[in-house]
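As a warm-up, study this chain.
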Amino acid sequence: CCLLSRMRVEEGEYGDWLALSFLHYRSHRAGGVRKVYRLVLDGMAGSHHPRTVGVVVYSTPYFKAGGYGHCFNRGWYERRRFGHILRIQRVVIHPSFRGIGAAKKLLTSSMPMLETAFVEILSVMHRVINFTRDFMAWFEVKPSAEKLKALKGFEDRFGVGLYQVARSGRLLRGVADWVRKNYTIFLDSSYSPYIRRLRDRRILLLTLRKIYVSATPKVYGLWVNPDPRFRDVQLEALRPEFVERYAPWLHGLGSGPRLPHPTGS
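Now compare it with the structure written out below.
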Protein backbone atom coordinates (compact mmCIF):
# COMPACT_ATOMS: atom_id res chain seq x y z
CA CYS A 1 0.00 0.00 0.00
CA CYS A 2 1.36 3.43 -0.93
CA LEU A 3 0.46 4.75 2.52
CA LEU A 4 3.26 2.66 4.02
CA SER A 5 5.85 4.75 2.20
CA ARG A 6 4.56 7.79 4.10
CA MET A 7 4.80 6.09 7.49
CA ARG A 8 7.83 6.14 9.75
CA VAL A 9 8.67 4.39 13.02
CA GLU A 10 10.14 6.38 15.88
CA GLU A 11 10.60 6.04 19.61
CA GLY A 12 7.56 7.22 21.51
CA GLU A 13 6.36 7.49 25.07
CA TYR A 14 3.72 5.96 27.31
CA GLY A 15 1.28 8.72 26.36
CA ASP A 16 1.28 7.42 22.77
CA TRP A 17 0.02 4.09 24.06
CA LEU A 18 -2.64 5.75 26.20
CA ALA A 19 -3.90 7.70 23.19
CA LEU A 20 -4.66 4.49 21.26
CA SER A 21 -5.20 2.06 24.13
CA PHE A 22 -9.00 2.27 23.87
CA LEU A 23 -8.70 0.42 20.55
CA HIS A 24 -7.01 -2.61 22.14
CA TYR A 25 -9.03 -5.71 23.02
CA ARG A 26 -7.33 -6.20 26.40
CA SER A 27 -6.58 -4.05 29.44
CA HIS A 28 -5.50 -0.49 28.76
CA ARG A 29 -2.86 -0.75 31.48
CA ALA A 30 0.66 -1.84 30.64
CA GLY A 31 3.21 -2.72 33.30
CA GLY A 32 6.97 -3.16 33.27
CA VAL A 33 7.25 -0.93 30.20
CA ARG A 34 10.76 -0.65 28.75
CA LYS A 35 10.21 0.92 25.33
CA VAL A 36 7.38 2.40 23.28
CA TYR A 37 7.51 2.96 19.54
CA ARG A 38 4.95 4.71 17.38
CA LEU A 39 4.03 4.49 13.73
CA VAL A 40 3.57 7.98 12.32
CA LEU A 41 1.81 8.96 9.10
CA ASP A 42 3.10 12.20 7.62
CA GLY A 43 -0.08 14.01 6.71
CA MET A 44 -3.25 12.81 4.98
CA ALA A 45 -6.36 14.27 3.38
CA GLY A 46 -4.61 17.55 2.63
CA SER A 47 -3.14 17.93 6.13
CA HIS A 48 0.57 18.32 6.76
CA HIS A 49 0.30 17.35 10.44
CA PRO A 50 1.76 13.95 11.37
CA ARG A 51 -0.63 11.44 12.86
CA THR A 52 0.19 8.49 15.14
CA VAL A 53 -1.56 5.48 13.64
CA GLY A 54 0.05 2.63 15.60
CA VAL A 55 1.89 1.87 18.83
CA VAL A 56 3.87 -1.06 20.22
CA VAL A 57 4.77 -1.43 23.90
CA TYR A 58 7.77 -3.58 24.85
CA SER A 59 8.08 -4.77 28.44
CA THR A 60 10.27 -6.76 30.80
CA PRO A 61 9.13 -10.43 30.86
CA TYR A 62 8.53 -10.63 34.62
CA PHE A 63 6.17 -13.61 34.29
CA LYS A 64 7.20 -16.63 32.25
CA ALA A 65 5.36 -16.90 28.96
CA GLY A 66 3.66 -20.20 28.20
CA GLY A 67 5.25 -21.78 25.13
CA TYR A 68 8.79 -20.57 25.70
CA GLY A 69 9.91 -24.19 26.03
CA HIS A 70 9.48 -24.63 22.26
CA CYS A 71 12.41 -22.27 21.76
CA PHE A 72 14.54 -21.90 24.87
CA ASN A 73 16.49 -24.12 27.22
CA ARG A 74 14.30 -23.94 30.30
CA GLY A 75 17.06 -23.28 32.82
CA TRP A 76 18.43 -20.41 30.76
CA TYR A 77 15.01 -18.81 30.29
CA GLU A 78 14.12 -19.02 33.96
CA ARG A 79 17.40 -17.51 35.16
CA ARG A 80 18.56 -15.12 32.43
CA ARG A 81 15.60 -13.90 30.39
CA PHE A 82 15.52 -10.49 32.08
CA GLY A 83 18.80 -9.37 30.55
CA HIS A 84 18.22 -10.62 27.03
CA ILE A 85 14.49 -10.75 26.19
CA LEU A 86 11.84 -8.10 25.76
CA ARG A 87 8.17 -8.91 25.33
CA ILE A 88 5.62 -7.33 23.02
CA GLN A 89 3.02 -6.47 25.64
CA ARG A 90 0.68 -4.39 23.49
CA VAL A 91 0.48 -3.58 19.80
CA VAL A 92 -2.37 -1.67 18.22
CA ILE A 93 -3.01 -0.16 14.79
CA HIS A 94 -5.75 2.38 14.16
CA PRO A 95 -8.64 0.59 12.37
CA SER A 96 -8.35 2.92 9.35
CA PHE A 97 -4.90 1.49 8.60
CA ARG A 98 -5.28 -2.21 9.35
CA GLY A 99 -4.72 -4.83 6.69
CA ILE A 100 -2.03 -2.94 4.76
CA GLY A 101 1.05 -4.24 6.60
CA ALA A 102 1.27 -1.44 9.15
CA ALA A 103 1.81 -3.79 12.12
CA LYS A 104 4.58 -5.59 10.27
CA LYS A 105 6.30 -2.28 9.47
CA LEU A 106 5.98 -1.12 13.08
CA LEU A 107 7.43 -4.32 14.54
CA THR A 108 10.15 -5.09 12.01
CA SER A 109 11.42 -1.51 12.17
CA SER A 110 11.32 -1.15 15.96
CA MET A 111 12.66 -4.53 17.13
CA PRO A 112 16.22 -3.97 15.83
CA MET A 113 16.26 -0.67 17.74
CA LEU A 114 15.80 -2.49 21.06
CA GLU A 115 19.39 -3.75 21.28
CA THR A 116 18.27 -7.10 22.68
CA ALA A 117 18.91 -10.70 21.64
CA PHE A 118 15.25 -11.77 21.53
CA VAL A 119 11.73 -10.39 21.35
CA GLU A 120 8.82 -12.62 22.35
CA ILE A 121 5.06 -12.35 22.22
CA LEU A 122 2.23 -14.31 23.83
CA SER A 123 -1.05 -13.45 22.19
CA VAL A 124 -4.64 -14.67 21.99
CA MET A 125 -5.48 -12.39 19.03
CA HIS A 126 -2.53 -13.84 17.13
CA ARG A 127 -4.59 -17.01 16.60
CA VAL A 128 -7.06 -14.96 14.57
CA ILE A 129 -4.70 -12.51 12.84
CA ASN A 130 -1.14 -13.76 12.40
CA PHE A 131 0.55 -10.38 12.14
CA THR A 132 4.08 -11.76 12.74
CA ARG A 133 3.91 -14.56 10.17
CA ASP A 134 7.00 -13.60 8.16
CA PHE A 135 9.46 -12.55 10.86
CA MET A 136 8.79 -14.52 14.05
CA ALA A 137 8.79 -18.24 14.69
CA TRP A 138 5.46 -19.05 16.30
CA PHE A 139 3.86 -21.93 18.15
CA GLU A 140 0.33 -22.71 19.24
CA VAL A 141 0.05 -23.01 23.02
CA LYS A 142 -2.85 -25.09 24.27
CA PRO A 143 -3.96 -25.30 27.91
CA SER A 144 -2.77 -28.36 29.80
CA ALA A 145 -5.13 -31.12 30.91
CA GLU A 146 -4.44 -30.04 34.50
CA LYS A 147 -5.69 -26.50 33.80
CA LEU A 148 -8.80 -27.74 32.02
CA LYS A 149 -9.55 -30.09 34.92
CA ALA A 150 -9.19 -27.26 37.45
CA LEU A 151 -11.55 -25.00 35.46
CA LYS A 152 -14.08 -27.84 35.28
CA GLY A 153 -13.77 -28.20 39.06
CA PHE A 154 -14.52 -24.47 39.45
CA GLU A 155 -17.67 -24.79 37.34
CA ASP A 156 -18.83 -27.90 39.20
CA ARG A 157 -18.37 -26.19 42.55
CA PHE A 158 -19.89 -22.80 41.79
CA GLY A 159 -22.31 -23.64 38.98
CA VAL A 160 -20.81 -21.04 36.66
CA GLY A 161 -17.62 -20.69 34.62
CA LEU A 162 -14.61 -18.79 35.95
CA TYR A 163 -14.71 -16.44 32.95
CA GLN A 164 -18.29 -15.40 33.68
CA VAL A 165 -17.39 -14.60 37.29
CA ALA A 166 -14.29 -12.62 36.30
CA ARG A 167 -16.14 -10.69 33.61
CA SER A 168 -19.25 -9.87 35.64
CA GLY A 169 -17.34 -8.95 38.80
CA ARG A 170 -19.98 -10.73 40.91
CA LEU A 171 -17.81 -12.67 43.32
CA LEU A 172 -19.16 -15.81 44.96
CA ARG A 173 -18.47 -17.07 48.45
CA GLY A 174 -15.50 -19.41 48.43
CA VAL A 175 -13.90 -18.14 45.20
CA ALA A 176 -10.89 -16.71 47.02
CA ASP A 177 -10.30 -20.06 48.75
CA TRP A 178 -10.46 -21.84 45.38
CA VAL A 179 -7.87 -19.43 44.00
CA ARG A 180 -5.50 -20.00 46.94
CA LYS A 181 -5.66 -23.77 46.43
CA ASN A 182 -5.37 -23.77 42.62
CA TYR A 183 -3.45 -20.71 41.46
CA THR A 184 -0.13 -22.58 41.14
CA ILE A 185 -1.68 -24.61 38.31
CA PHE A 186 -2.07 -21.41 36.26
CA LEU A 187 0.47 -18.88 37.55
CA ASP A 188 4.13 -19.15 38.52
CA SER A 189 5.54 -18.56 42.00
CA SER A 190 6.33 -14.90 41.28
CA TYR A 191 2.59 -14.21 41.61
CA SER A 192 2.53 -15.41 45.25
CA PRO A 193 2.60 -11.91 46.83
CA TYR A 194 -0.71 -11.09 45.17
CA ILE A 195 -2.34 -14.24 46.55
CA ARG A 196 -1.82 -12.90 50.06
CA ARG A 197 -3.93 -9.88 49.09
CA LEU A 198 -7.04 -11.65 47.77
CA ARG A 199 -9.24 -9.88 50.32
CA ASP A 200 -8.81 -6.90 48.02
CA ARG A 201 -11.67 -7.28 45.54
CA ARG A 202 -9.65 -5.70 42.74
CA ILE A 203 -6.74 -8.10 43.26
CA LEU A 204 -9.08 -11.11 43.33
CA LEU A 205 -10.77 -10.10 40.07
CA LEU A 206 -7.40 -9.43 38.45
CA THR A 207 -6.20 -12.88 39.54
CA LEU A 208 -9.30 -14.57 38.14
CA ARG A 209 -8.72 -12.86 34.81
CA LYS A 210 -5.06 -13.89 34.76
CA ILE A 211 -6.05 -17.48 35.51
CA TYR A 212 -8.55 -17.43 32.65
CA VAL A 213 -6.01 -15.96 30.22
CA SER A 214 -3.49 -18.60 31.32
CA ALA A 215 -5.94 -21.33 30.27
CA THR A 216 -6.90 -19.71 26.95
CA PRO A 217 -5.33 -21.09 23.73
CA LYS A 218 -2.81 -18.62 22.40
CA VAL A 219 0.32 -18.25 20.30
CA TYR A 220 3.91 -17.83 21.46
CA GLY A 221 6.17 -16.09 18.95
CA LEU A 222 9.90 -15.39 18.99
CA TRP A 223 12.13 -13.02 17.00
CA VAL A 224 15.84 -13.77 17.01
CA ASN A 225 17.97 -10.69 16.45
CA PRO A 226 20.26 -11.31 13.43
CA ASP A 227 22.91 -8.93 14.77
CA PRO A 228 26.08 -11.09 15.23
CA ARG A 229 26.82 -9.35 18.55
CA PHE A 230 24.16 -11.54 20.17
CA ARG A 231 25.15 -14.84 18.58
CA ASP A 232 26.94 -16.36 21.58
CA VAL A 233 24.10 -15.77 24.02
CA GLN A 234 21.56 -16.92 21.43
CA LEU A 235 23.32 -20.24 20.92
CA GLU A 236 23.48 -20.71 24.68
CA ALA A 237 19.81 -19.83 25.15
CA LEU A 238 18.09 -21.66 22.28
CA ARG A 239 17.28 -25.33 22.01
CA PRO A 240 19.43 -27.04 19.33
CA GLU A 241 16.38 -28.28 17.42
CA PHE A 242 15.00 -24.72 17.29
CA VAL A 243 18.28 -23.42 15.87
CA GLU A 244 18.40 -26.19 13.29
CA ARG A 245 14.89 -25.48 12.03
CA TYR A 246 14.51 -21.73 12.43
CA ALA A 247 17.95 -20.14 12.79
CA PRO A 248 20.66 -22.24 11.08
CA TRP A 249 22.44 -18.98 10.25
CA LEU A 250 23.55 -18.87 13.90
CA HIS A 251 25.91 -21.73 12.97
CA GLY A 252 27.01 -19.98 9.79
CA LEU A 253 24.66 -22.03 7.60
CA GLY A 254 22.92 -19.97 4.95
CA SER A 255 23.20 -16.30 4.15
CA GLY A 256 20.90 -14.87 6.78
CA PRO A 257 17.80 -15.29 8.94
CA ARG A 258 15.39 -17.88 7.63
CA LEU A 259 11.73 -16.93 7.47
CA PRO A 260 9.72 -18.94 10.01
CA HIS A 261 6.76 -21.09 9.13
CA PRO A 262 3.80 -22.15 11.26
CA THR A 263 4.06 -25.11 13.55
CA GLY A 264 1.66 -26.67 15.99
CA SER A 265 2.29 -27.37 19.63
